[in-house]
Specification:
The protein is mainly beta. It is built from no helices and five strands. The protein is globular. The protein starts with 14 loop residues before the first strand and ends with a strand. The relative contact order is 0.27. Pfam families: CusF_Ec. This is Copper-binding protein.
Length: about 80
């Protein structure tokens, strides 16, 4: 008798690119609030959402800036992985 092997397939975090307007920054907490249109790849409607972000990415970003960004879902959080004006 041959024993089968069991394995778990881990879903990779899907990333999506979008554009929006920065509403708030909290570099200390590593958070950015962005108002954006629908992001279908992340199943997000048009909204204003607080994302987690590495504070190092916020060097030249300020509220009111129009930005292009890449985000992913990480568990229950949304995380900006790239951002530019």
């Amino acid at each position: 008798m041959v024993a089968g092997s069991a394995y778990v397939v881990v879903a990779q975090a899907q990333e999506a690119s979008a554009s929006g307007e920065v509403r708030r920054l909290d570099a200390e907490a590593g958070k950015i609030t962005i108002k954006h249109a629908e992001i279908s790849d992340l199943e997000l409607p048009a909204m204003t959402l607080v994302y987690k972000i590495d504070p190092a990415l916020l060097a030249d970003i300020k509220p009111g800036d129009k930005v292009k960004f890449t985000a992913k879902r990480d568990g229950g959080d949304y995380v900006v992985t790239k951002i530019s004006k």
